[in-house]
Design brief:
329 residues; mainly beta; four-stranded antiparallel sheet; globular
Amino acid sequence: SKTHPNAIAQICSPFVAPMARRVGLTCSGHTRPVVDLAFSAPTPDGFFLISGCKDNQPMVRAGSTGDWIGTFEGHKGAVWGVAFDSSAQRAATASADFTAKIWNAATGDEIASLPHPHIVKAVDFSPDQHRLATACNDKLLRIFEIGKDGEGQVLTGHTAPAKKVLWTSNTTLASGGDDKTIRLWDCLTGAVVHSVAVPAAITGMELCRGGTVLLVTYGDVIAKYDPKSLTVIDQATMSAPVLSASLHPTLDLIAWGGPDGIVRLAGDVAPELKEECRGHFGPVHCVRMAPDGEIFASGSEDGTVRLWQVNVGREYGLWRAAEEPAAAQ
């Protein structure tokens, strides 16, 4: 069974600028580009990190240390999207083998394989854990009732491949695609209730701050939307193209990455650059803040996952006070 010795921090301290260069903890194991990451919610055994990779081998790690726990074996194509359910008991993966799969996160056993007519790019569990939503290159979204047979409910509207999908409640979905639109769906009727056009294809999407902010990236823009109305809360043009961004759960801090391989930290309220985190040797495809706010993770074209401390010098996970970390096992 999954166990982890480190307690989850209950209170996030203010961001502290490092006295020394921020060094990422390298999590090896993948053999091809890492394209998606997802942290679980906190559990009694800590929290966990799942990585999607073009090597077909999604991996689960201890969230605070990066230590490998297990690999889900069964996909025959690149894994483009990953997610945990709200209890971290199940995981889901989206693959180029035209399937989405649901897994027992503790044992690694496959629970279900959901066929699609094209590459599946994203997956997400509903908050009540009863349904799985998928985004597919055939331009469609699908909703599957977990544990029931059938092709699932189909949501039609995107005019180019759908790349991102997230539940914003048990009855609404947000999605983004190559058609340069963000859409909000009523899952009871299958209708689009709000749609926003943007200047470039959607590259990233995250529901954060307790479901009150939908963070979206496209081009060189990071934008925050109200997930109930798709009203723009705030947006900023960054200094380089953005492939992914993640908002700290409590602090004025956003981590983001892009094609140049640098993970950047910027302010949330005022997006001035705070720091550049270097170490990857290829584009950074995904960045995610951990639920305890102590670390953030990045996945890159170089085949590695890196963990970075928010507060450098603090003892946490494999980091010791004012020491650089060792590599995760």
